[in-house]
From TrEMBL, chain A:
GO cellular component: cell envelope
Source organism per UniProt: Phytoactinopolyspora alkaliphila
Acidic residues bias locations: 45-62
InterPro entries assigned: Bact_solute-bd_prot1, Chitin_NgcE, SBP, TAT_signal, TAT_signal_bac_arc
Gene3D superfamilies: Periplasmic binding protein-like II
Pfam families for the chain: SBP_bac_1
The gene coding this protein: ngcE
Protein name from the UniProt record: Carbohydrate ABC transporter, N-acetylglucosamine/diacetylchitobiose-binding protein
Protein keywords: Signal, Transport
Top-level taxon: Bacteria
Ubl conjugation among keywords: no
Main location: other
Amino acid sequence: MTHRTTRTPQSALSTRRRFLQQLAIGGAVVGPGSAFLASCATGGGDDDDDAAAEEPQGEVSEDNPLGVPTDQPVEIYIFDGGFGDGYATDIHQPIFSERWPDIEINHHAAVDIAGELQARFAANEPPDFVNNSGDGQMDTSQLISDGLVHDLTELFDAPSWDDPSVPVRDTLVPGAIEMGTRDGTPYVLNYAFTVFGIWYNKTLMDENGWPVPTTWAEMLDVCADIADHGIAPWVYQGVTAPRYMNWPLLTMATKLAGPEILVAIDNLEEGAWGHEAIRESAHALWDLGQKGYYLEGVEGMEFRDAQGLWARGEAVFCPSGSWIENEEADAIAEDETFELAMMPEPLLSDDAVMPLETIRATAGEPYFVPAQANNPRGGMEYMRAMLSMEGARGFTEMVTSFTSVLGSSEGVEIAAPGLSSAQAALNAAGENVINWFYTSWYPTMENPGIDQATGALLRGAADVDEWVERCEDVAREIREDDSITKQSR
Amino acid sequence: MTQTGLAGAAQSKDVRRPRPKRARAGSPMGRGKYPFILAFLLPPVGLYLLYMLSPYVQAIQISFTDWSGLTSSYNFIGFDNYVRMWNDDQIWTAVRNNLILLLVVPVLTLFLGLFFASMLNVGGRSKGAAVTGVRGSSIYKVVYFFPMVLSVVVVGIIFKYVFAPETAGGILNSTLSTIGLGGLTQLWLGEPRFLIWIVVVVMTWGFVGFYVVLFSAAMQSIPKDIYEAALLDGANRMTTFRKITLPLVWDTVQVGWVYMAIQAMDGFAVVHIMLGINGGVDGAGDVLGVAIYRAAFASSRFGYAAAIGVLMLILTMTIAILFMRGLRREKVELA
């Protein structure tokens, strides 16, 4: 019997492996189960640092620009959520296998990505391709700063699947690569493309002859009219996600003062949230609450309940992204006549510097290749196949969402009225597409940080000054936290 | 393996004591004694070390690192996580809420549990028997146990809709309006100051049934003639409860109290399901368990999460020890 477990001097604890060895020795008398000690949370394997060094590579040629090893399997994980995983098995994988018949695809679908993969990352044995999405997604910023994500520069520089003379980079919509870039290096492929705006009940608007408001003054007139009919003008995502209202808030402020205000916010500049345009925009949304234009009781509701009431005609305007049509499909299907449409946010004043048509749109739905993968080139090649025109169109047709492949939705008949109105809005916006990055750079800044401040603003617990102060506090907290890797643009 | 050795020695002493001084070689516990005891003792001690103690030790170790939970390596950063915790207002909210749960839930649950159990077992008065439960007590017994059969997740989701706004199907508000108390309706889950009290109500509701059953069992082991004697002396229900029932089930109450207190330090499932990962509006309903979950799985700070876990461990152990000491009371022998 050994007494080492209890007699270990403090200094000997300084190295993790030695500590575990001692535990293992101590546990050896306990039974065979103690061998697990070396493989639990803090017990790293012996081959910790070897995996990344040997990256299998095939011969680089015109047909194989990434040098994919043609005989090794690729292990992929698809998030089985709103989009399902049928687009991967029925569309992307056949495209991939047609060109690489000898590469076996080990397909996995997972609802809880972190639940299935976190331990594999910690054990240094990640798969080759991960669709890091859903409620259980891993913190992308943390993965990147931990050096666990493969650099995708080679992929974006490689010739595209369809046309060898055009690099992958040039087949993507502007901003798509930037969305997944940290410190100048692209790490994440954001494949889906989401359009944000105010979604409204078109049936009700048409029936009652309410015009689609283009200025905030018109919006207030329409709201007054709607309220007179005993319908709530606005709804938002209740207790769950009042942050959805940040989207019209920041978009309207940007239309008023230009996209520089978003740069200041993303760069965590002091006073960024106190900009006059942002104050004006926040005041407008606070004012809706003061006038009683939000659905009664919405501040105590779950977001699906609130959106469901909207889809059932209890309210007219709802902030969201282009997924809402899928999300509320059940409620929408209850009423044959119900039709929804998207409108760009109204202008706060006549001297706005950006046109009404300006919208927020962004590439989303992240995919990445782990740096320690066994076959990272296989993972990147799979991305290249996804980004083919055929792959992108198939995705749009199957899951009714745009992709970040340029022109991939052209000619695709979009039956869903909401999405087709979003498509029209996107086309009308032209160059005037805006976005901000702080939400993906600093997830905890958006939620719970700004989320709670905006929740207080909307239910009237904070006025505009207090809201600004709280947002500034949240930004300061991130700015002064040395353990968070900062980004700028 | 000092623990194993000590435990083994203590055990063998106990075994030896009642036997005559000179054990015969041929007795069943003779020569083969040590292998026999070890064979039975090692697996549980081993499992305990492996699955209970080693995670504690590891958690304490991780709390001094910057581990994100994703990598296979990390750096030791001293007390940084503990300093961060000290400066984190949200943690103080969580501690405050845990203390509210700790003080209110056990008192409420044990009070209700004792009250219901004594009504079911000794509260009734009928002509035939001196000591009996109130009428229909066999039905109530089953009904009280219903919440225990439901999973916490189901309880959480049900109560989310009990407290929802009327337009979203809120049961409480609809009931209040129907019976003409519309003035009392509130946006229960939208108002920071209500959140923790809602959790108190839900936890109490969920736990009471178990304690009714526990106390019922204890009360049934009290000899009936004690009650009969008291009744002959003219004691009323209140007096029999105070002078007879309570002292004779005090041991069970004490165990229940400690158990309850430890459960109240948790509260993770109810809060997470009813109020969400941020602890509800403004994080006002946060508890330490949810804060740990959030740090580990939403912000990838396993080191920080482990530090909060260590705080929770210290609080729970302190409370358990205080309760055990504070509630010690003269034992009453029944026979």
